[in-house]
Hints:
The chain is an alpha/beta fold and 237 residues long. It folds into two domains: 4-77, CATH 2.40.240.20; 85-236, SPOUT methyltransferase, trefoil knot domain (Alpha/beta knot, 3-Layer(aba) Sandwich). The protein is built from six helices and 13 strands. It has helices at 28-37, 95-107, 128-141, 156-160, 200-206, 221-236, and strands spanning 11-13, 19-20, 23-27, 45-49, 54-63, 67-77, 85-90, 112-116, 149-153, 165-169, 175-176, 188-191, 211-213. The mean pLDDT is 91.
Amino acid sequence: MILAYLSNIELYYFQPESITENIIKVSGDEFLHLSRVMRHKIDDVIFITDGCGKIYTCKIVSLDKTFLSAEILSFETYQNKFKNIYFCIPKLKNPERFEFALEKCVELGITNFIIFESLRTIAKSNKVERWEKILLSAMKQSLRSYLPKIHSLTSLKNILELDGVKILFEQNAEKKLSELKYSDDKTYYFIFGPEGGLDKKEIEAAGADNLFQLTENRLRSETAIVFAASKLTAAFL
């Protein structure tokens, strides 16, 4: 949970390897935003996350043309409640809806994503660099301290071969998501279908025990993804 004093701040990100003793160096796009957009100056107090669970309160001690140095005054460490949960999302035909789903999931706390191509996937583009920028921006905007990770797999078959509990959402499934019992020592893969749904062969390959109904009514793919993330957030509060 983010502390109250962080509610109205601007959060920045730095590479964890950029910290030396009690000094953090910020460069690249984050430096440009800090210095040219937000116009921070020496002695300003700023808040920076390492994307690994810590948010640092820092004071700027020097400004160069390409980077700034900030002294660490204090820091807080936060728990990642979703570290063992992976959202497995197929590429959607509409890139804007796909990116919307990614962004909202990060705001709701999801930190692991697997992007795959189902048999009915139409979109074939692989814009990992763009997706990573969206994840970073969403993390900072929502004051999260864990930088989400994104992985690509070629098919649902690859996901089903991973070690862990599979939850594949199917409209006609008998089991409901509310029946699922979570355990800290297990990894969970939440699998969503594309616009036209998963192919019958893919559903059969998952096995009946891994099929869950998300809602009684049919949802768009991006709505189902965000709805599942919100249900998880509520369950872990």
